[in-house]
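Handout, section B. The chain below has 347 residues.
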Amino acid sequence: MSREPWVEGIDIGGTTIKAALVDYGGEVRALESTSSNVENLPSFKRSFGGLLAKLGKKVLPGARLAAAGIGCKGVVDTGTSRIRILPGQFAFLEGLRLDRLISDALGFSLPVSADNDAKTALVGEQRWGAARGKQHVVLLTLGSGVGGAFLSAGAMVRGCSEIAGHLGHVTVDFQGPLCSCGNRGCLEAVFSARAIEGDAVASIRRGCESPLRAKFAANPESLTCLDVFTAAASGDPMARGIVERAVAALAAAMAGMAHALDPELFILGGQIAEAGPTLFGPLRKDFYGRTLRLVGRRIPIRKAALGESAGVLGAAASAWKVLESDSLRFLAPSRLRGERSARRIHR
């Protein structure tokens, strides 16, 4: 009796590596995670291998692991799965082939789909989430950094060298702070969780009056981006000022994307999207004020439907696409032979 195929979806995030077993319908059958706060490649491989080993023990007897998908920051060569460019905390992964990373951890080879993490997230939303049935979509992942991807006529736009979609590196302040990519004033350098947390910590250390200062003065590094949004929603003037500046930068960047790409939908995912109305209310107001005249319609801005599992589900959706394309290649010659046989019979 054949066993039910499952795929492994792996998401290498700025703070956590997650891996899940996912069935064809998009149900997460098992999930494991580990910290991604490592300093070098050997430590990363040990952590990664331990994660997949734990997950592998949860494949049920009636199931089999058929493929794997993996999403990672940076520029990933989808043909070879090699990470070509990855500035920042995971720079030591540059040059690494992600398919080999997985096969070394598992002890065997299987089909692997590897891509930028925002692109895999959009594949997941297209298959199971908010982008289902849509043709022109922009997705932004708002976390420790800002990732992006977009569909045009239902297809992922990749550009000449796989760079298309790095929307976190759209410039919003030409004299702004230096970004890890080498540019100045990138959206990621102004709006990301790290940027917002950095602004709040700096304000606390300057002694600015705020409930956040009273709460985090002894240990400001424990403050999170969502703490800042929560304080802003509670009326904290310092937090409100930080959030207003950050949201204005995001609205301006998205207005530029709207005018350049003309999407039917924006999808926002990642930890900052969990701020809910404190983010989406002022963002929509500012964005529509910037775009209604030329665009002529209110482009919907929605929260990613796949939630906290968006990363692993997106990677899993990419793995299922690989299996489906392989199945089509396998079936095509058989169908062709069948058609030729039918023609011979009719003669």
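Note. The chain has two domains: 4-117, 130-303. Compare this with the example in section A.
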